[in-house]
Design brief:
The chain is an alpha+beta fold. It is built from 3 helices and 6 strands; from the N terminus they run H-H-E-E-H-E-E-E-E. This is Ketosteroid isomerase-related protein.
């Protein structure tokens, strides 16, 4: 698909908003995350049975998915965001996720998120990650 957006288009959200949204993910702040998404927002997890992982649509569905994902504190990981970029209604960022395994070792995963913004909120967060093995 070819993008028809102007390559010098001004971002639809401020970098400070983008940073707050990422901080909410790093802190497992479910209410913070869903409050910054559109009512019909989409979160595609980087894992799941479908080629796109698992698609969650709408604030309540996203809230429920995150509650389930982070219910067990041992499953929580720390997201360390790298560079982030904004252009028009799109954004992307790199990240590293670290989690302590039951045996005490640290599991590290690298990935990237792709975003679409509408009316100053996150309309889509599409996550991808490297698979080890």
């Amino acid at each position: 698909m070819v993008s028809t957006s102007d390559p010098i288009e001004r971002p639809q959200v401020e970098d400070s908003f983008f940073a707050r949204y990422q901080r909410a993910w790093s802190e497992c702040d479910i209410e913070g995350i869903v409050s910054m998404m559109t009512p019909d927002g989409v979160y595609e997890a980087s894992f799941g049975p479908e080629p796109w992982g698992v698609r969650h649509v709408g604030r309540e569905t996203i809230r429920a998915a995150l509650e389930e994902m982070w219910r067990d504190p041992s499953r929580r990981s720390r997201h360390i965001y790298g560079d982030r970029f904004l252009l028009g209604d799109r954004g992307f960022s790199e990240w590293t996720s670290e989690r302590t395994e039951p045996d005490g070792t640290t599991a590290v995963v690298h990935g990237a998120d792709f975003y679409r913004f509408t009316d100053g909120l996150v309309a889509e967060k599409i996550a991808y990650r490297k698979v080890v093995g």
